[in-house]
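Box 4.2: Ligand-aware structure prediction
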Amino acid sequence: MCGIVGYVGNKDALPILLESLKKLEYRGYDSSGVGFLDHDSRLIVRKSKGKISNLESLLRQDSLPFAHTGISHTRWATHGFPSDINAHPHTDSKNHIAVVHNGIIENFQELKAELKKKGCKFLSATDSEVIPHLIASFYKGDFLSAVRRALAKIKGTFALGVISHHHPGVLIAARVGSPLIIGVGDSENFIASDVPAILDFTRRVIYLQDGQIGVLTKDKVDLFTFEGKNVKTQVDTVAFNVTAARKDGYPHFMLKEIHEQPDVLEQMLSLRLKKGKLVLDGLALSDEILKRMHKVTIVACGTAYHAGLVGKYIIESLSRLPVEVDTSSEFRYRNPIIDKNTLVLAVSQSGETADTLAALREAHSRGAKVIAICNVVGSSLVREADGVLYTYAGQEIGVASTKAYTAQLMMFYLLALKLAQARKTIDVKESREFVRQLMRVPSLQRNILKDMHHIQKIAEANSHFGCFLFLGRHVNYPSALEGALKLKEISYIPAEGYAAGEMKHGPIALIDEYRAVVCINPQSHVYEKMSSNMQEIRARKGNIIAIATSLDAQIRSNADFVIEVPQITDLLSPLLVVLPLQMLAYFIAVKRGCDVDQPRNLAKSVTVE
Ligand code: AGP
């Protein structure tokens, strides 16, 4: 996934292109670049490997001209490793047309071969570079027609910004399968991969739809279908604000966001529980419809998928509704058995994950209702779902998801309660007790965060291990998966999450004095079973970090290190045990000198398949 910005207007394009692009750096930071037309409409392109700060240093070396028309791009590499030459914008051989692209051109090899036969010279290893050459090959004076003809040849997904030396003051945008919005200003217009990138300049946006082309000048925005038919423009006004993300004294956004979790959950509970009564307004499904559901299917990726796995245990335990959980990328290709009596929950922090968007569309095509559990207001997923349960966790900047995860978990607890009440599988007394337990969570989390320096010492004492195993049972099996993902994605240490009961069926072969094993074993109905697993690991000299309920004396004989979490009812323990897991990952990564907020090869939102 990449970030795209375009500008056409009376102001100097370059500073706008850069400032807006920085707000999209979460979408990828392998390389970045700008392309613009100077007063003689000469096309100038500057691009650089690495973060946008590298591009800014490059631009400071030149005294660059004032430009009214320009595009910029921050990249997450799909085809072609991160480098200056593979950075966008890409241009045609005559340097007349420049393009920035987010998506994947599936037939680029075939197109590249055809274009090479026509004498096109390719410089990069990317799929995207075929686009400017294709447009140039069709260009006979009509910019829009050349773009339309080029798009007709492309298979795959794209959000594009295109400028041309022949057409100063014109910016063309088009999309299929990747997000792109148009910002409508006064004597200026913008394109961007998402709304926050341009909120400093305008609140008036047009959500470009798949199969649409926008032709922007400083005074006008015209929309067309790929076939060239006019499309009525609908300008929406963005109501939400995006508070400028600040670290507020923390060394990294991730650590700040770990510490924000109690406040986020406290806010959620006050918003969603009014005098003990559930307020899930965005659900948009009556109790009657909920009662009619035969099963729930949860689709998500990465950390959101782990939240879904916890959701399965909670929803099945409270409402006795069968729950399936799929990674979105698997769901969409397995010919899933769902229908109008299936409640599909699409979980996504960003609301822009391509696979989860595709899973939603797959579910809709089979007649299912889809509810989004999402953190970004107005995102693509939200706009296509039948209802939305916002987690309101606030902007999550750290690529490794933390507060969004526990907010997703909390949403599942609330939704499970709603389903149980609708299906009368829980009585008033049980509901009240469940809510009472939920209300305790923020303060219990605060207690855990007070233990941060103890956790930091344990992390640093284990940061030398080259391989970690995370083990959990029942509702904390997904916690083990999440702990492993947190560690591997920010410290680059191989880490695997496993159901502890499965250890004897293979992973135990890994155990020796060179492995660290994180055992998640709070007081629960599977405590003894988990303790046996820990003894089996000890017998093979595995190094154990245990996450256990406070004052558990027994666990100390089975572990090298113990991190305590307060006592809470079984089902709610994932809301607590994940904090030590997040902090272990964080402090190990810091100790190893990794880029915690922007780990290599990753991006915050995966908008390509
Ligand atoms: C989580 O730490 C990762 N950054 C990643 O797995 C993420 O959860 C996944 O890409 C899904 O993102 P989404 O919630 O925005 O859909």
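In the box above, the bound molecule is 2-deoxy-2-amino glucitol-6-phosphate. Residues 428-449 form the longest helix (22 residues).
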